[in-house]
């Protein structure tokens, strides 16, 4: 299984990007429901930040 280790390490940036984008779109939909188009934009930005730092926290927790 040591030959698969570089593949799993290479997919971490892809997992980070996917987590960030997915949580950003979820935040956008929640923001649109609450506050219209401005709420959607604000929700998207908040979702991006939460998705990024949430996945970083998961990586840190996994490495401990």
- Biggest sheet details: none
Provide the gyration radius in Å. 15 Å
The number of helical runs is: 1
| N-to-C series of helices and strands | H
Described by the principal axes of the CA atoms, the overall outline is: elongated
As a percent range, the share of strand residues is under 5%
The average pLDDT value, as a whole number, equals 83
Structural class: mainly alpha
- Helix coverage percent of residues? over 70%
Low-confidence stretches are none
Number of domains: 1
How many DSSP-defined strands?
0
Termini Cα gap: 22 Å
Structure description:
By secondary structure, the chain is an all-alpha fold. It has one helix spanning 5-63. It has one domain (19-63). The chain is elongated. The model has no long low-confidence stretch (mean pLDDT 83). The two termini are 22 Å apart.
Brief account:
With 64 residues, this protein is mainly alpha-helical. It contains one helix and no strands.
Write the layout of secondary structure elements.
Elements: H1 5-63
């Amino acid at each position: 299984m040591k030959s698969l280790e570089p593949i799993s390490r290479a997919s971490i940036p892809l997992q980070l990007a996917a987590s960030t984008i997915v949580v950003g779109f979820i935040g956008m939909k929640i923001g649109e429901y609450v506050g219209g188009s401005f709420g959607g934009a604000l929700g998207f930005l908040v979702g991006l930040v939460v998705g990024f730092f949430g996945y970083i926290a998961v990586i840190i927790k996994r490495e401990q």
